[in-house]
Design brief:
By secondary structure, the protein is of the alpha/beta class. The protein is 50% helix and 9% strand. Helix 29 runs antiparallel to helix 30. The chain starts with 5 loop residues before the first helix and ends with a helix.
Amino acid sequence: MEYIKNCDCEYISNKYHDTTKPFDSFQRFIRNDAIFSPDTGLDPQSVYDMLSSEDEKIKTLPHPIRKARAFECVLKNTRISCDKRDIFPAVNMTDRPINRALILAWKNEVFNRIIPEVGKKRTQLEKDGIVTIWPDYDHSVPLWERILELGFEGVLEESEKARYSRELSEEENIFFEGIKITYEAIIMFVSRLAELASKTEGSEKMAKALRNIAHNPPKSFYEALLFSYIYFIISEHIDSLQVRSLSGFDVTFYPFYKNDTENGVSEEEIRTDLAYYFFQFTSIGNYWNQPVYIGGENADGTSVINELSYLVLDVYDKMNVYNPKIQIKLSESTPRPLVMKALDMIRRGHNSVVFVSDATIRRALMRVGVSEDDARTCNIKGCYEYSPKVSFNTGMNYLNMQKSLEYALHRGHDGVTGVFSGNSSPDLSEYKTFDDLYSEFKRQLLYVIDLAVETVNAFEGYLDYINPLPMLSATFPTCLESGKDAIAGGVPGNSTIAFGFLATVTDSLHMIRKYVYEKKELTLKEFVDILDSNYEGNEKFRQKLLADREKYGNNKDRPDEIAADIVNFITENLCGRPNARGGKWNCGFHVARMSYIFADKTASSANGRLIGEELSKNISASIGQNREGATAAILSATKIDASSFTCDAAIDLGLLPSAVKGEDGLEAMYGLLMTFIKRGGHALQINIFDADTLRDAQAHPERYSDLQIRVCGWNVLWNNINREEQNGFIKQAEGLC
């Protein structure tokens, strides 16, 4: 791997993973205890035991204080490591020890004792595959520019100034005390790391940088990287709060880069520091990948792209890693060479680059009252979601739209379990026209939306009770001004439902319309009976449905109109409703792994899908159903108004290697991308593969250890996904034109 020595690479690869155990791609944090000396602190189990014991002594105190004291306990006692083979330290801990010791108990208290009926309802909704509902602490982004400008000690000082600038209520005083304990613990912890680095041969550079950032803002590019890494490690793995963006890197880190170049630091050293930084996240191995974005526009409409933007892509390209993942905020002002560089990386296997439209997200945010400047500078985070920098949106809900069609076809009963939904539908004989059925589907969909909103609103007011967030809150001036936690109204906070399986439900509705109401090849009852039998004895009819090319994702007006209408119905009936945190409800259409998780809980579909087979992803065509090529897929997806909601509408584009070869192939990729952007699309991610290669990779995994696959909103190694998911990608590749 370029920039990193072989021995260093081996050490960093293994420092967060015990190589004696099989790698579990879903486990975020697998310790390698061997690199941590007992002299530096307690082992993870002992830290956990101490944490639990100490909390028992203060269990009558408010949660923000108890969590801050637990935070302090972990940072004082966890083992640490510095090694000359790396320029970043390591921390030995169980994954989220405070989550294990305190937060899970507080969550159970809320759902089992304080609002038990809500707890039962959310459990049943998830069990039946209708909608997932959980407390969401996985979509935060600190105000990076501010904390890099102030440093840890500066953030603490600003908090204390705000604390003593006015008379406080008891609740506000508790809020500020939690910040004080938390940031004093961080400063102490960085000083611990600095002391260890100073005693470690070959770690002089790290020791000097750690000594500075313990008490001052970072000055150099390396110090800024080190500061960012430490914030990430502490937030994710101790504070139990995911950091879902490392910032708009080429803007946030540019002043540090420029300072170094003007003061004689070589570009080679900067590249090396960046490579070691990126490699930390590969080592940590978060399954969902760690997001970082580049691009966007200045206030005058010029692109923010600078020499650091190109350097980021070039270093990443030469490293051949897939984590962190890179998001490019793309606009018409984005320099063509940078876009072509990114597209060339994708066609050579670096699928972890995703494009998001700057114009679309700006329009969407401004439509709901966000200022032009805040919309322009918004964060790209998570998979490809976006929000103003001063905000904390939550998204704990994946809603299965296919269930609403099941209810409409079964008099309000679940198509798999037969359980009554609570909302009756007419007998099949009463649907005289397709519009009758379609209207009932919408009524059932609205019923499920109402259930989800009611359930989430009943518990979102407890989010700061379950997991108070002093570390994050201190980064936002509005939290300090109001004395409120970021997740309790200290910053604007919307709640999002991710609506799943748009293509599946669209194609199912259209196939019913076509074969029952138009062609009249069978009655609606006969069709439903076939679905209830999982197509047993009707394979010929199923193949006919699968072969029908009039499906969403092929630029066919009739199914595409249904898809766009469903989206409009959702936005009109959900977006803008009040949530429980002083914000609004919002929607998006990404599905993560729900295409597989909900598959067994979703009855066979009228588009030819069997029960247990995967459901459609994001706003892409159903698996294997994009028969008219990439342009048609883009044209279908962009008939949806992606600026009518402020979350995500991503399309997964599959292209054959033969279609992207040479200069002509690269031009074709560029043309597809810019067509998507100019037509108002939101997010585009690309896989370059053919079925033969994927089948060979499945049969001979040892030959394809570096093969990357772009899934919902992140990248994985082919060998780290299960056979079911591999088969889905093979099926997708078989359908490519």
